[in-house]
Amino acid sequence: MQPNKPDNEKYSVTTLVADPSFVSWVLQGNPVAAARWTKWIAASPENAATANIARQLLLRIGFKEHVPTEDAITASYDRFTNTIAGLQQAPVQRRRLYAVLNWRRAAIWTGLLICVGAATWYTWQQQNTWQATTGFGETKQLQLPDSSSVTLRANSSLHYRRSWNGQLREVWLLGEAFFRVNPDKKAAAFVVHAADADVTVLGTAFDLKQRNHHTAVFLLSGKVRVDFHDKKMGSKVLSPGDLLEYDQQQQKVSASRKDSSYSSWVHGKLTLVDAPLSDIIDILEHNYGEKIVVDDEKIKERKIEGTIYLENKEDILFIISNVLDIQISRRNDTMYFSNRK
């Protein structure tokens, strides 16, 4: 940085790690450079954040100049000069000096190239990797770096990465999410990895759930291929309306047909058609973090129809208690479902 440059001059992380003045301040404590950069950092919080990232990159790399000692250079040089007749001493001294300078320049430029490479990788990673999580009772509307949209259900996590050559988009999912994948002619595929299967798509809308050794894929539109990690299960290609479920413990795959109400949770509600209470218990446990004990297993088989909104957990409990005629009580961190007395 030159002294006459204004304090509001903008620098990126890549620019800073390649700037000799910034490098000399961070790695060598150059007092002149320190004064200049300290003033620039103090100009705004954004400058401070950028400088901190660049500084951490340089310190993490931790490169050093490896300059040979004068004795080592002399010994190496003498082994060659002894075989050359008539060589005068003056040129020898000059060549020693040139050797030292060349070693020093090589070390500095190597370090700078490493820094620029690291900064480039960091910038690429920021633009092509992404992650998000949700807590109990929380749903997030997300947009991935490739403009695909995701609705991430409660108690779930998602990690996105695009390959260096741009030919593959990958997502790792724990929990449940609804995807609307943006078609990308430059990308070969969009793949979502779950614990028991991988879902490959090219431009579609689908729901993927992975809970308690149970995987469910519902295709709303487009086309997907499900590749199970258990090779005995093979691969399945789904058409719109297909629901594919896999029970890892029983090693069983089942297929059925559903309409768009299957993914109604994306709109903050449950559209229930002859749904057993066990399905709602599953939602209360996985999406709200409740621990539920049912004193009579037959209670789980009671059916309910209609629309339940998910904004308020207490409303859900009130509805199922009155519609299904069950008593709900709580002791410590556990909720108990039982027949009304």
Automatic annotation (TrEMBL):
Domain Protein FecR C-terminal: 270-336
Endpoints of the signal sequence: none
Coiled-coil portions: none
The FecR protein domain, residue ranges: 133-225
Any Pfam family matching the protein: FecR_C
PANTHER family, A to Z: PERIPLASMIC SIGNAL SENSOR AND SIGMA FACTOR ACTIVATOR FECR-RELATED, PROTEIN FECR
Protein name per UniProt: FecR domain-containing protein
Species in which this protein is naturally found: Chitinophaga qingshengii
